[in-house]
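User: quick one, sequence for these tokens?
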């Protein structure tokens, strides 16, 4: 028989469970309302025109607590004066308990059948299996589960794993991934749950295991190595196997190799052939991809068909709200502190915060931060942790990471993200080589261990359509912390600068100027560190390149690849000029020497390269450089392909007015402009045609050229596009309305969720 205590559910979840059970049992539609101190109504329905029924759901762990609340509740009920009052509670009730409650609520509770305690709700859940299925967290409170596990002939590790399931269950927020994984298990008898660390792979796997233990009476077997699967496999009995991080724990082992691939594949195939077995596996996505590339057995077996991938993008505002709510509610935060969070909907600042991270929430709860503030200060304190979660990351950084992982993170900080994983490794290797006193070195095995260690907290790996990876921060607040951590450590900064191999290592987090952009926090280098940076730049200038990764979309827009950002020599030289030029004779000499080598623009179609080239021509003292003006123009105009470049031609014209004569404009510039405009009319997407028209009209005035025919052609193309837009049926636009409706519904549900804090006492 079903026997749940319902305390794994929050008050909000218990109220929803009450609604779903009674709707099914009474065959009525039940209205839900916002919870609050003064409402006195959780749920309501109408039996007839004049007969209103109010339902209250009370989640308590003892009868005395319940009774104390009900004695206060009767005043609200008198005021509402319903024709019928129904009470549900998580507390087990005796016949005398029900009579006592009925007497308190006389005449609104007509009979004790309208008082449903824990046993009554369990009885109804036994009848309505579909409702029981929806509230997975109920399974964790069944007193039969642990007994079932202990009676099975399994090893102690499985019992330990079950205890972890119980510990984490209250905080888990279910989404569609549970049903997706269950469908895969039904089809293939095994499922591979993949994704980045911290997204909930293990928690999902544990809840799937729990389903098979409680609902299907399976024996639970937890695997720490694949050999255990063969030893504990039973021919007759029903078994569910859980192998958490099945590749990671062996893929980078002490020997630096992996020999279990064939055993894993063979066991998967054995599971597929055995109806009474289930195999649940978790893995980090990038390790699975690497295993498929490296080992033939994974290439032969198409294990992708049974993969359930968890994605952070699925964390909607509502899911974030539930994660926040569960952490706070089950941490036993005092009620007055929780209610401060509800005032003016302050919880929204946390849910929508750019630094939102479940690990921050978990850490501040573990610290019991409410002990350091008054109730009125609670929401502000939480928001401050999100605004500047330094103390959270500092604790993890200094207590959970080894020294090499710490240095690797700081090297990553200097490069910026995203960065190709191989580029990050190269920068770490250079840092190790140039700082022998630190006694650190890197090899393939150690680098993989660094990734695994940092993935749990600080970094995430993002793959492109071709399974190549870049490194990014798990959360923007991590960069803020790392800057805070090193900004006063000049010796450490010196080591980073002396090991830099990418242009962005000098400028991503470091600034040579005290004038700061408030939106971008940087470390201002002192004179000593500025000179160290300059010396490094001059010594390795010809080998410098960008370490920042960018996305390159395919022509059809269906795929993308990660690639290295092109750091143009002109842009880098210009940055040095702006930072050092007039303040350092050494820098000035270097800049003019380099620009002399690059004074004529080589073939390039990058607008930013053209832009910085013109900036250098405009701001440098050209008397220090030898060149031919005619060749400057010739080389530059040879690289002009788009209308956007016209403004750069105008700047060049203003820089050399004596050379740029009306006859030169008419004979050279006008034909070039017409050719470019015509080419862009042919290639411009309809949605961008009006912007093109605006730019062409400006060019007509700036360069004294008639472009009326071209403007007419653009206008005609624009009109055709407008007609097309007008012809689109209204229902095509309805998706936007559906999105807005979904957004509004989500806002209401979040509000209802947190308003339950106001009903606590």
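Assistant:
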């Amino acid at each position: 028989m079903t026997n749940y205590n319902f305390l794994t559910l929050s008050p909000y979840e218990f109220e929803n469970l009450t609604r779903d059970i009674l709707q099914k049992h009474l065959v009525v539609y039940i209205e839900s309302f916002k919870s609050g101190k003064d409402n006195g109504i959780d749920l309501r329905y109408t039996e007839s025109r004049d007969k209103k029924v109010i339902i209250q759901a009370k989640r308590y762990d003892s009868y005395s607590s319940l009774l104390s609340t009900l004695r206060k509740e009767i005043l609200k009920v008198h005021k509402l004066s319903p024709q019928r009052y129904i009470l549900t509670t998580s507390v087990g009730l005796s016949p005398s308990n029900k009579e006592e409650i009925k007497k308190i609520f006389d005449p609104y509770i007509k009979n004790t059948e309208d008082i449903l305690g824990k046993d009554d709700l369990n009885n109804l859940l036994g009848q309505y299996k579909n409702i029981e299925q929806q509230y997975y967290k109920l399974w964790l409170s069944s007193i039969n589960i642990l007994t079932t596990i202990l009676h099975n002939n399994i090893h102690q590790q499985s019992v330990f794993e079950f205890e972890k399931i119980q510990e984490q269950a209250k905080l888990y927020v279910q989404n569609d991934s549970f049903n997706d994984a269950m469908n895969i298990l039904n089809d293939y008898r095994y499922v591979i749950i993949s994704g980045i660390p911290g997204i909930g792979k293990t928690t999902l796997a544990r809840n799937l295991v729990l389903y098979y233990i409680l609902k299907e009476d399976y024996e639970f077997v937890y695997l720490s190595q694949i050999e255990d699967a063969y030893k504990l496999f039973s021919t007759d009995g029903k078994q569910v196997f859980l192998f958490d991080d099945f590749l990671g724990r062996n893929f980078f082992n002490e020997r630096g190799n992996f020999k279990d691939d064939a055993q894993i594949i063979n066991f998967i195939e054995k599971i597929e052939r055995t109806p009474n077995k289930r195999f649940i596996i978790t893995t980090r996505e990038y390790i699975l991809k690497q295993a498929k590339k490296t080992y033939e057995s994974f290439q032969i077996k198409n294990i992708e068909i049974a993969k359930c991938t968890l994605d952070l993008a699925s964390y909607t505002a509502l899911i974030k709200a539930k994660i926040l709510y569960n952490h706070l509610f089950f941490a036993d935060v005092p009620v007055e502190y929780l209610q401060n969070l509800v005032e003016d909907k302050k919880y929204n600042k946390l849910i929508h915060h750019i630094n939102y991270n479940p690990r921050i929430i978990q850490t501040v709860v573990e610290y019991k931060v409410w002990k350091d503030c008054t109730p009125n200060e609670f929401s502000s304190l939480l928001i401050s942790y999100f605004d500047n979660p330094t103390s959270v990351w500092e604790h993890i950084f200094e207590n959970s990471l080894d020294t090499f992982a710490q240095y690797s993170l700081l090297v990553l900080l200097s490069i910026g993200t995203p960065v190709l994983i191989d580029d990050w490794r190269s920068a770490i290797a250079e840092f190790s080589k140039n700082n022998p006193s630190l006694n650190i070195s890197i090899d393939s095995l150690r680098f993989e261990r660094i990734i695994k260690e940092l993935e749990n907290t600080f970094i995430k790996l993002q793959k492109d359509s071709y399974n190549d990876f870049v490194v990014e921060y798990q959360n923007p607040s991590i960069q803020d912390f790392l800057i805070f951590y090193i900004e006063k450590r000049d010796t450490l900064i010196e080591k980073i600068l002396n090991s830099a191999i990418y242009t962005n290592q000098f400028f991503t987090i470091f600034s040579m100027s005290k004038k700061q952009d408030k939106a971008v926090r940087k470390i201002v280098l002192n004179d000593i560190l500025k000179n160290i940076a300059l010396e490094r730049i001059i010594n390795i200038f010809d080998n410098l390149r960008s370490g920042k990764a960018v996305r390159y979309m395919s022509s059809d827009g269906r795929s993308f690849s990660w690639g290295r950002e092109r750091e143009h020599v002109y842009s880098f030289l210009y940055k040095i000029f702006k930072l050092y030029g007039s303040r350092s004779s050494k820098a000035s000499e270097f800049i003019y020497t380099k620009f002399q080598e690059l004074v004529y623009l080589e073939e390039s179609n990058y607008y930013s390269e053209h832009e910085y080239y013109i900036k250098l021509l405009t701001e440098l003292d050209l008397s220090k450089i030898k060149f031919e003006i005619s060749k400057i123009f010739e080389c530059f105009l040879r690289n002009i392909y788009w209308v956007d470049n016209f403004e750069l031609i105008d700047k060049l014209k203003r820089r050399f007015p004596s050379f740029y004569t009306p006859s030169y404009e008419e004979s050279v510039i006008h034909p070039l402009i017409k050719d470019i405009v015509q080419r862009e009319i042919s290639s411009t997407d309809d949605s961008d045609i009006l912007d093109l028209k605006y730019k062409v009209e400006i060019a007509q005035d700036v360069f004294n050229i008639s472009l009326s025919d071209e403007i007419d052609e653009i206008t005609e193309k624009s009109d055709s596009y407008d007609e097309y837009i007008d012809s689109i049926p209204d229902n095509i636009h309805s998706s936007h309305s559906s999105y807005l409706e979904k957004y509004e519904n989500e806002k209401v549900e979040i509000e209802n969720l947190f308003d339950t804090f106001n009903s606590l006492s």
